[in-house]
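4.2 Preliminary Data

To establish feasibility before requesting continued support, the project team ran the inverse folding procedure on a target of 126 residues. The structure was first converted into the token representation described in Section 3, and no sequence information of any kind was made available to the design step. The complete token record follows.
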């Protein structure tokens, strides 16, 4: 007897795809909207900037000019900005607990579904 899995209707398939699409887009864009993505840059501008004081050689100056920036003071905040690499142990622990909890949930649900498929295919365990 060949195993025939249950069929999912068109509405169920469309609903599943749209749900996954919304969750994926949400997971990518919500951190951006909340300001949680990327490291914060802290500009450290130099007084009376010149291209030399900003450490920019001739090739780099040409690239700035290609971007439409010919005045060193306009690029001062961009060039001197440094990333903020601050670290939070609380955030790390919360994230680790969330990831571990998620994997425990996935393993438990997968185990239950796997057992249901085996039972459906081969019958109850004796």
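Position-by-position output of the design step:
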């Amino acid at each position: 007897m060949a195993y025939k899995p249950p069929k999912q209707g068109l509405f169920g398939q469309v609903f599943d795809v749209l749900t996954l699409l919304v969750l994926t887009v949400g997971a990518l864009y919500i951190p951006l909207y909340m300001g949680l993505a990327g490291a914060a840059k802290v500009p450290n501008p130099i007084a009376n900037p010149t291209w030399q004081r900003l450490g920019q050689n001739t090739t780099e100056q040409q690239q700035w000019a290609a971007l439409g920036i010919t005045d060193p003071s306009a690029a001062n905040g961009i060039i001197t900005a440094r990333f903020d690499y601050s670290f939070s142990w609380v955030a790390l622990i919360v994230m680790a607990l969330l990831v571990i909890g998620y994997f425990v949930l996935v393993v438990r649900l997968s185990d239950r579904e796997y057992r249901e498929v085996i039972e459906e295919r081969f019958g109850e365990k004796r």
